[in-house]
Amino acid sequence: MKITGFFSYSFLVRLGKFLGNILYIFPCFGRLCYQNVHAAFPEKSKEEAKDIARKSLQSLALTCLEFLWIRSNEDEWVKMLDLTDADEVAKMGLACLPEGKGAIFVTPHLGNWEISGKLLAQVYKFPMATVARTSRNPYLDKLISGGRSSSGNVEIIYAKGGAKGMKSALNKGKTLGILIDQNVKLRHGGIFVNMFGLPIPVSRAPAVLGRTQNRFFAVGASFRQENGTFKVYLKTLPKPAKDYESDEELIQALTDISEELIRMAPEQYLWMYKRFQYIPEGTPQEAVQRFPSYAKRPNKHFYTNNPLVLGRRKKED
Q1: What is the pLDDT of residue 232?
Q2: How far is CA 248 from the centre of its chain?
Q3: In terms of residue numbers, what domain contains 39?
Q4: Nearest to residue 220, comparing CAs of 97, 96, 105?
Q5: For 265-283, how does the pLDDT look when each residue is reduced to its tens digit (9 = 90+)?
Q6: Which of 16, 127, 206, 275 could share a disulfide with 61, CB 3.0–4.6 Å?
């Protein structure tokens, strides 16, 4: 981290491309990314999909390097932000805070998602709480959590058992930052929504925490530009949270905006994980054929841990 801090940003970009190209050589990375891109964009040629997959790994490598670089260049990265398409929405969110209603900002793994969280806390001065998964490596966990809370007004809430912490943070008037595009089993509070025309399981937590309270929602991303800046986008829901008739409808709306942002720069999206892993019951055959080879039908434990329900399903089978 200390060594990376001495690099110029232009060198960081070149290094990210080099490391991403190395990752692409390994099938466990390159092939996985290609399969996901092909599933999301079946209309693209094989060469186009491969190019997006390779650039996606370059973007991932650069995101990791930027995370380290920013820690030593706190003043520099702020100057690199283009907030033209984010300023108005951010101010709308700030206006909600005096009412005692914490806002909810979500982002996909797109562009540099770490910057998206930091700018809310460091640039716009939101009192933030962000959800993070615990790393198995305690030193890595400390590094990641320290980087996210380095601006001084960010509370880290760990995902395991974090529902109570998220609710508490919002009730204190804090703004909650959530990475929305992670696989969440239905027995852990997930729901299926459509993304790129395929069903994916995501957390219903944002809707549970914000729909009935009519909290302010926004979806954002920080894209890298050719001139070395980050173009930041923040988009609001088409209607107030309270007007959505169900949690599923609200989460689908958030996912639709996420997909809209990803389509703007698919090469900067994180395709290196099994996004289309589960094929739910009742999926049309034409959609099933689009799923990557790693996709599977989820077992009963995906849906519930309840032994009565599992026993009833087994009997029905």
Answers
A1: 96
A2: 18
A3: 4-302
A4: 105
A5: 999 999 999 999 999 989 9
A6: 16
> What is the tally of structural domains in the chain?
1
* Contacts with 314 (C-beta within 8 Å, 6 or more apart), sequence order: 300
Q: Would you state the pLDDT for residue 150?
A: 53
Q: Determine the pLDDT at residue 96.
A: 85
DSSP label at 224? Answer: E
Mean pLDDT of the chain: 88
Residue 266 maps to a domain: yes
3 state DSSP class of 1: coil
Rounded Cα–Cα distance for residues 210 and 220 (Å): 17
pLDDT in tens, 72-115: 888 888 999 999 999 999 999 999 887 767 899 999 999 999 88
Phi, psi of 279 (to 5 degrees): -105, 105
CA proximity to 317, closest of 281, 287, 285? 281
- List the one residue out of 70, 13, 26 whose CA is nearest residue 268: 13
- Model confidence band, residue 159 (pLDDT cutoffs 50, 70, 90): low
Number of residues that make up the chain? 317
Give, rounded to a whole angstrom, the gap between the first and last alpha carbons of the chain.
54
When computed from its CA atoms, the radius of gyration of the chain, rounded to whole angstroms, is 20
Q: What is the DSSP string of 136-147?
A: SSHHHHHHHHHH
Q: 307: which 2 tokens?
A: 């032994």
Q: Would 310 be classed as within a structural domain?
A: no
Residue 263 domain flag: yes
Beta-carbon contacts of 317 under 8 Å, excluding residues fewer than 6 positions away, are none
Cα 235 → chain centroid:
15
